[in-house]
Amino acid sequence: QALVTQPSSLSASLGASASLTCTLRSGLSVSVYRIYWYQQKPGSPPQYLLRYKSDSDKQQGSGVPSRFSGSKDASANAGILLISGLQSDDEGDYYCLIWHNNAWMFGGGTKLTVL
Amino acid sequence: QVKLVESGGGVVQSGRSLRLSCEASGFPFGGHGMHWVRQAPGRGLEWLAVIWSDGILEYYADSVKGRFTISRDNAKNTLYLQMSDLRAEDTAVYYCARGDDAQSSACDSWGQGTLLTVSS
């Protein structure tokens, strides 16, 4: 079982909200992890969006709109990237990243399509 | 403005060695941990290695431990990745990325990447 799992794709409508999940493997507790989120568009390197551990331990990337926010769903053992007011420019691949056992681990990425 | 420029990619035969470089500018290089991350064609991101700002500590992904070595020269503002026993599955775009503090913190800025193709 992969350490971190992301749905491979997600579609949402223009102007709506999208919740992208990053689920930790059973046995790990999402509550103790800082979860980092990145956006990547075709042919470009990833861009840092934000990190979230708790409401008192979070950071927005420089220049990243407040439409992008982080949270957690403890019942699902998952980190969440919420994108509100979806724009066509939000289309792309989104990756989560965590630090575990002295190594960084990316999730497999979610391809977001804005309809 | 943070600038990271990778170089050294190209086509190499399997089994050979190669060193990638990443020249940094626009920030105090010696004050940040640095990473290498790769992305195989059509695939997701794979973190490879991180080195602390002073070079004292390094951490590696299991997939490259023992074959790849990360290093840095703070006097030259340059990060390196020495790769040995290259395999077809090492074909990827290799990115260097800045850590957001002096140690092992996550990447906050990325270079454009350099493409490595390993031919059999």
What ranges of chain A have pLDDT less than 50 throughout 5 or more consecutive residues?
none
Helix content bin of chain B: under 10%
Number of helices of chain A: 0
**Intertermini distance of chain B:** 40 Å
Biggest sheet overview of chain A? 7 strands, mixed
Shape of chain B: globular
Specify the structural class of chain B.
mainly beta
Oligomer: heterodimer
Radius of gyration of chain A: 13 Å
Mean pLDDT of chain B: 96
Cα Rg of chain B: 13 Å
Overall shape of chain A: it is globular
Unreliable stretches of chain B: none
What does this structure look like?
The complex is a heterodimer of chains A (115) and B (120). Chain A has 115 residues and is mainly β. Chain A has no helices and 11 strands. In chain A, the strands form 2 sheets. In chain A, strands 2, 4, 5, 6, 9, 10 and 11 form a 7-stranded mixed β-sheet that branches. The model of chain A has no long low-confidence stretch (mean pLDDT 97). The radius of gyration of chain A is 13 Å and the shape is globular. With 120 residues, chain B is mainly β. Chain B is 0% helix and 52% strand. Chain B is built from no helices and 11 strands. In chain B, the strands form 2 sheets. In chain B, strands 2, 4, 5, 6, 9, 10 and 11 form a 7-stranded mixed β-sheet that branches. The model of chain B has no long low-confidence stretch (mean pLDDT 96). The chains are: A mainly beta (115), B mainly beta (120). Chains A and B meet through strand 4, strand 5, strand 9 and strand 10 of A and strand 5 and strand 10 of B.
